[in-house]
Amino acid sequence: QFTWAAPVSGDNHCTLSDNAQCIFKNIRFAPGSAPRNVVGKACIYLHNNTDADIFDNCTFVGAGANDTAVWLDNIDCIITINGVSLTLAGTFRNVVRHDCGGKTSWGGTTAANGTVTVSGTGGIIYSRYGATAQVSTSWNTASGSFSATGSVADRQGLIEAFGTSIPGGVTADTTTGGIYVP
């Protein structure tokens, strides 16, 4: 597995923008010497009509309570997380965060390596402003555990869970049009 340490600046590992497409396979996203533990930074940041696939043995290592694994910042961003296994380790604000729409499809198996803490508003999945998150992953706790605040769907955001319970649960803010389909 290739280890990709965060840039010395503490910026995103990878920023995709303006019609970009990328496939991530067999990569370990590590905090490095200058971790991204900054609100607004992520391992993978998608903006403005981008498409990314994550599959086959990828690992995200959270750098702290402000860190995010995948951040979608536009209605035309799409991320697919699927394959043999996705591993999470460390501490995150959110694992997947939608700030201005976008779509996430998350399947396969997601494993905890040690205690995975997700402590930010929105929990593991924060879906807002017309975003859609469809989750069917199985949560593997054989090598660790998940400690998470509840995921949130608000401001016309949608979270659909297909045969899975998202650690920390899910809340839909119906006053702002959030929808949760268990």
Describe this structure in words.
The N and C termini lie far apart (34 Å). The mean pLDDT is 91. The chain has 182 residues and is an all-beta fold. The protein is built from no helices and 22 strands. Strands 1, 4, 7, 10, 13, 14, 17 and 18 form an 8-stranded parallel beta sheet that branches. The radius of gyration is 15 Å and the shape is globular.
Characteristic terms for this protein:
mainly beta, eight-stranded parallel β-sheet, seven-stranded parallel β-sheet, 0% helix
Query: Mean pLDDT, rounded to whole units?
Result: 91
Low-confidence stretches: none
**How far apart lie the N and C ends?**
34 Å
Structure class: mainly beta
Describe the sheet with the most strands. 8 strands, parallel
Assembly of the depicted chains: single chain
**Beta-strand percentage range:** over 45%
Tally of alpha and pi helices: 0
Write the H/E string, N to C: EEEEEEEEEEEEEEEEEEEEEE
Rg (C-alpha, Å)? 15 Å
Overall geometry: globular
In total, the number of strands is: 22
Helix content: under 10%
Brief rundown of the structure:
With 182 residues, the chain is mostly beta strands. The chain has no helices and 22 strands.
List the helices and strands and how they pair.
Layout: E1 2-5, E2 14-17, E3 21-25, E4 27-30, E5 42-47, E6 51-55, E7 58-63, E8 68-72, E9 78-81, E10 86-92, E11 94-98, E12 103-106, E13 109-112, E14 114-118, E15 122-128, E16 132-135, E17 138-140, E18 144-148, E19 151-154, E20 158-161, E21 170-172, E22 179-181
Parallel strand pairs: 1-4, 2-5, 3-6, 4-7, 5-8, 6-9, 7-10, 8-11, 9-12, 10-13, 10-14, 11-15, 12-16, 13-17, 14-18, 15-19, 16-20, 19-21, 20-22
